Hints:
- With 450 residues, the chain is an all-alpha fold.
- It has 20 helices and 2 strands.
- A hairpin with a 2-residue loop joins strand 1 (206-212) and strand 2 (215-220).
- The longest helix has 36 residues, at 379-414.
- It is globular and about 65 Å long.
- It starts with a helix and ends with a helix.
- InterPro entries: GT87.
- It is a multi-pass membrane protein.
- Keywords: Cell membrane, Membrane, Transferase, Transmembrane, Transmembrane helix.
Amino acid sequence: MYRAQVFLRQLEPRSARTTAEVLNFALWPFAVLTVLNRVFIKAVNGYITDDFRPVYNASLHFLRHEPIYNANFDSTDPHYLYPPSGTLLISPLAILDPEKSRWAFILLNAAAIILAGYLLLRLFNFTLSSVAAPALLLAMFASETVTNTLVFTNINGCLFLLMVAFFHLVIRRQFLWAGVALGLAIAVKGPLLAPLLMIPLVMGRWEATGKLGGIPMGRPKEGQWQVLVTALGIPVALNLAAWPLIVDYKQFWTHTLPYLSESRDYFNSAIVGNAGYYGVADWLTWTMRIVIGVLVLVSLWLLVRYYRSDEVFFVCTVSGILVTAVLLLSSLGQMYYSMFMFPLLMTVVLRNSLIRNWPAWVAIFGFMTYDKWLSDRWQSAGRTLEYLRTTFGWSLLLIVVFCVLADRYLAAKREGRLQPGKTLDPAWMHLEQQRDIADPEATADFVRAG
């Protein structure tokens, strides 16, 4: 009874006394009402694009022991592309009738996104009473990626939750359980999140074993390799379990998998997708992919060499780079997969974040906003802006990350601060941090807000 009274007292209308309270009072209604709009209005209304129908049909065919992997890929309708392991996991969808099953799936993904947002807040040491809570909730549900995940009724929300759970478990050194979370995601979507396996493998303490060509070599001391056991073992086990249960099991490997390896020139924001649509020469397409790939590798090398000890920053930044690179450089990248970049965007609250600059947020605007750039007056220009904004946004984000890291590296080299195990952060960042510790009253508002 007492707890209920305390909760109701929080809802009593009152005037805010601090900036943090003003922001909380303003943002929470916008956040909650946006969530309700996206879940119960836009998602239930649906759209001409329907990712749920082929998934439900595949689940129904699985339960009836009918063929699943016999899609005609000549059409532009959404196709069923989950591997047998994913089919096994999502098969309970067909227990309900299509409408109720779709509503349940919408609610499941919405709940997963909200829970993932909470875990993301905890990762950065924010509470539900902080301004960050409604700000993050509003940003997520106002974005294209969450909106279209719910409207198209895709499984991305559940995968996002698994990814954030993976981060928590990795940082806590619970590598076997971290592998379970990532393994379930890989079982459904295949290679989209598989590159995240790099993160635990390069974290933590290593035991030196010598040098190769002047480069220090070693092996992990904290059992990071354990993540491979479950992250790879679960998809393999689920695929083997699905083998006798799917009547056209081999068709996935001979019919669907080859299609997944091809690039298509529609609904595809990867470099090869838009290059195919606009008729860009192969040599130029490959040049763009190689240049971006080199920038990604250099960025990852700098992060691994100098930022491994800053674990939250490292995990969230590296994950954002890896996911963006997969979407941009692979055969298929779709805008609503940008959901997996929220951890990178959340690093903006950190002093050494790589996205505390306006070009980064120009890039983020390109692939996160729900705005449409199609124009009745300037049809050609509007269509070009709409089709290319995601590709340009992903590309610009990777370029910005590389430039910030390269600038820090060159500055540290000039100042003689290049030491493995120590960050490339400029001195002013550490001076600010020390000043905050020495003068706690100067940051009282920040503490109250966070």
